[in-house]
Amino acid sequence: MSRTDTDPTDTDLTDTDLGPFLEAVYQRFHNADSVADDPLSVPTAYSDALDREVMGFIAAAFAFGRVQAFMAKLACLRDRLGQSPASRIAGLDEKGCMAVGSGIRHRFVGEGETASLLHGIACLLRRDGGLKPSFDRGLCTNGNIVDGLESLLFGIWPADIETSLPGPGFLLASVRAGSPLKRLNMFLRWMVRDDGIDLGLWTNVPTGSLIIPLDTHVFRIARFLGLLPTRRSGPRLKDAIQLTDALRRYDREDPVRFDFALSHLGISGGCRGRFHETTCPNCPLSPVCRESQVGH
Ligand code: SF4
């Protein structure tokens, strides 16, 4: 059978204990060096908790497409918002939001969407003093963090918002569309986990209730490890939940602990999403990666 005929999930590694290999990836990539080229570097640049929360949400909202491209837009926003971005945003009217968002476009997000996100956050800050009350309102109905995230989205951009701005568009994910909510779950990971990398600001949310922020890179690696049996080509929210449950075998209280390292295996470790003779031999997952086994 040629390599192109082979599904990497068919390679038999089912009895292998992945724990030591996941720990090895965690040890290599879960460190401050990896934060430098991660959107998490945006909120960590501030010391004030509310600045971290607000800039974390904005950084996560822009975190799609090429890393260098969205980090450049975020750097521009940071320059315009100054040292105390939360209080600056809270003081902006629509015209001010348009001035700050002027020219800040990223892929299919235009400056109107950027201004709308700022406007939605500004209204929420003036109303609730932060993002967390909206999240908590959804969370407290049944403890489901997806309900908390949906409530947060509604808090930022309620259906009855009065504005001439077009709306945040792609900057706010739709919970109902079945997408894995990668950016929202990443923001929540930053807010909840507390280990010197993630920020640990929302202490009432148990780490065990988080859902892994599943993007195509982590999705592919999870399939290579046999953690996700799906043959779907792209991730869905149910895949993110299934992968989180699979990772619970290796850390019951904090399954999302491995996310930062797995995603940086793609960024810093150069995983190309397929066997490659220069990257796979140096990868801590190589002995248990079905794609790597197929390549030998
Ligand atoms: S062994 Fe290769 S394909 Fe598998 S996760 Fe590592 S770098 Fe990626």
Describe the structure.
The structure is a single chain. With 296 residues, this protein is mostly helical. It contains 14 helices and no strands. The protein folds into two domains: 157 residues, no CATH class; 135 residues. Helix 6 crosses helix 7 and helix 8 packs antiparallel against helix 9. The protein binds iron/sulfur cluster (SF4). The site of iron/sulfur cluster (SF4) has 12 residues, from helix 11 and helix 14.
Quick summary:
This protein is mainly α. The protein has 2 domains: 1-37 and 177-296, no CATH class; 38-172. It has 14 helices and no strands.
* N to C succession of SSEs: HHHHHHHHHHHHHH
Rounded to the nearest angstrom, the radius of gyration is: 20 Å
Mean of all residue-level pLDDT scores: 91
What kind of sheet is the major sheet?
none
Shape: globular
Parts with pLDDT < 50 across at least 5 consecutive residues:
1-11
Topology:
Elements: H1 19-29, H2 32-35, H3 49-62, H4 67-81, H5 85-90, H6 94-101, H7 111-128, H8 132-142, H9 145-156, H10 182-192, H11 216-224, H12 237-247, H13 259-267, H14 290-295
Bound molecules: iron/sulfur cluster (SF4).
Iron/sulfur cluster (SF4) is lined by residues 221, 224, 271, 275, 279-280, 283, 285-286, 289, 291-292.
